[in-house]
Specification:
Number of helices: 12
Mean pLDDT: 90
CATH class: Alpha Beta
Number of strands: 10
Number of domains: 1
Strand order of the largest sheet: 1-2-3-4-5-6-9-10
Largest sheet: 8 strands, parallel, barrel
Strand content: 15-25%
Low-confidence stretches: 3-21
Order of helices and strands: HEHHEHHEHEHEEEEHEHHEHH
Radius of gyration: 21 Å
Amino acid sequence: MKRKLKIIIIVIMVAIVLFFLSWQIDFSKRKPNWGITFSQFYAEEKLGLDWKIVYETLLNEFDVQKLRLIAYWQYLEPTRGNFDFKDLDWQIEEAEKRNKEIILVIGYRVPRWPECHIPDWAKNVPEKEFRDAVLNYLSVVVNHYKYFSAIKVWQVENEPLLSLFGQCPKPDREFLKQEIELVKSADPERPIMITDSGELSSWLETAGLSEVLGTTLYRIVWNKYFGWWKHFYPPLFYTLRSFLVKTFYNTQEVIISELQAEPWVPEGEAIIKIPFEQRNTNFDIKQLQSNLEFAQKTGIKEIYLWGVEWWYWRKINGDNTYWQFMKEFLAPTP
């Protein structure tokens, strides 16, 4: 019994040592390709901004080649069968003028809370009718946007198999596969990306469904059980899983599709109603810098920043700190 106890203690001690050593491992051999996610919905409806000005300003002031843009179903098909592409067309055309490369997110579950952005007319229809409407929407959108050369990747849904977060229908892997097949048949040339949580998922459900797997990377979060919480995973946690899914599944590339660069907002709260000082307590510039360094240590070579709309909102409300910090961070190295 004493011998078994000693072995257990030794194993625990070795595990602790290895865990702390893993924090010292740095896989960043070169500067990653930085990108930015932009949400018209978040800028306009949650922050009360003129989304076109925000978008033009980020295009003009941030030195990034890559963008992740979002096709919001409620904007593109506000009434059944009637499509309005003008806002998203404008976003893509402005990016093309500047030779940007775009990941276009399509589907009913896309970035920003409440996660599922479904037009009113489709919210209470029977399940089969809803799914037919989703597939029709995807078909129309892909066939419209496949002629834009700036679009390099289709992202089909956003964290579609994550049931722990969002106000959404129950995840269905088989229906997701139908969506993927539809997009592939409409545009066989471009790769497809499926995203998953880097902290709340093993990736086993999503790995292999697409050529590209996108992961979130959040470090300071909040939930109703623990309050504010800092994830304890080291960068190696993401590096190893990236290696495994590329080695044992059909995944060709893993990217960080959402790197936390703004505060996490507890459910039910509005970020613009929380004083700057309180936001700074949970996500100050040091934490932002720490997140950037952490992401680079994973060795993942393509990273999309999450929070540009909030940097801009703070900028026009008297605090230019975050906007200027990121502008300098993304500036070309002399």
